[in-house]
Amino acid sequence: MRSGFIQPLLACMLLAFSLPAMAQDAAAQGIERQMTTEEFKAAGLDKLSPAELARLNAWLNRTVETAAAEAKKRVEDDNRGFFSFGSSEPVVATIAGEFRGFARGREYTLDNGNVWKQVDEASLVGARLTNPEVKITPSMVGNSWYMQVGRYNTRAKVQRIK
């Protein structure tokens, strides 16, 4: 992993994981405490009854919490392979182009933009597939990942590089 990539990745992860907490803080305060008195009046919100204001706050809170959860999931999905995030779900995609078997050091570009490099000695001689589906599963312990291609049972240890 390139060192220039780590800081932006960590910043995105921090933001995505802090958004739900920020959303809960805003939910506890309500919109009337988020805005200045002038902003509240200019938006016409001072005309709402307490029940209407409560409904507006509930809707805003659901919207913010949903957006925060979606942002967190997007960061996790986009960065699977660099980190496991505790999920045992495999990465399922398609190799873009031809697959010619496993070999140490070989790179595999997937249709989702991920690039994985084989880091073990697993081999699959004579395999020839075009745009095959792959399943990349995390190990039970640590941050190791294993790729299985198409109908073949052979798995190769891989590392995400992009």
Give the topology.
Layout: H1 3-29, H2 31-34, H3 37-42, H4 50-78, E1 91-94, E2 98-99, E3 107-109, E4 115-118, E5 129-130, E6 133-138, E7 145-149, E8 155-160
Antiparallel strand pairs: 1-6, 2-5, 3-4, 4-8, 6-7, 7-8
Helix pairs in contact: 1-4
Q: What can you see in these coordinates?
A:
The chain has 162 residues and is an alpha+beta fold. The chain has 4 helices and 8 strands; from the N terminus they run ααααββββββββ. The strands form 2 sheets. Strands 1-6-7-8-4-3 form a 6-stranded antiparallel beta sheet, with no helix packed on it. A two-stranded antiparallel sheet has the order 2-5. Helix 1 packs antiparallel against helix 4. The model has no long low-confidence stretch (mean pLDDT 82).
Q: What strand line-up does the widest sheet have?
A: 1-6-7-8-4-3
* Number of helical stretches of at least 4 residues: 4
The rounded Rg comes to 23 Å
The class by helix and strand makeup works out as alpha+beta
| Strand proportion | 15-25%
Order of helices and strands, N to C? HHHHEEEEEEEE
Main β sheet profile: 6 strands, antiparallel
